[in-house]
Design a protein that fits this description.
Alpha-D-Glucose-1,6-Bisphosphate, Chain A, domain 4, alpha+beta, 3 helices, single chain, 7 strands
Length: 149
Amino acid sequence: MGGMMESTVVIERPLDEVFGFLLDLEKNIRSVDADIESVEKTPEGPIAAGTTFWLSRNARGRHREFTRYTRIEPNRKIEFEARFGPVAPTGSLTFEQDNGGTRVTFRGDPNPVGPFKLISPLIARKGQNMWDKRLARIKAILEAPGSRG
């Protein structure tokens, strides 16, 4: 299966804190992903299945992309679908206690659209690399002293 992505990290913080950080893209994505200029959440109100985050990215010109949560199990799992450019990835983040810390596992399928299906393994590798970096960055942010709150 050349197309699947998987990435895991253990963050030395309590499970609910890690889950809350990853759940609230509106509040936290810009600290993780420097390219993102703005985030808009629809609909208003608590984050739930169906919540969509519209991201404006400034990398080689402006892009608009979205991430939509399709299923949320509090402190256990977030499932989502996204769209940016020629890929419409689906994925999940699972959260498990690991001693005093939290193991976060990302699994995803890049789902390239149209002719991009031919380079699916390439897109998957790129996506995998992006998630490895993203999880490492989230770990660094959450484990930094004074990051509570």
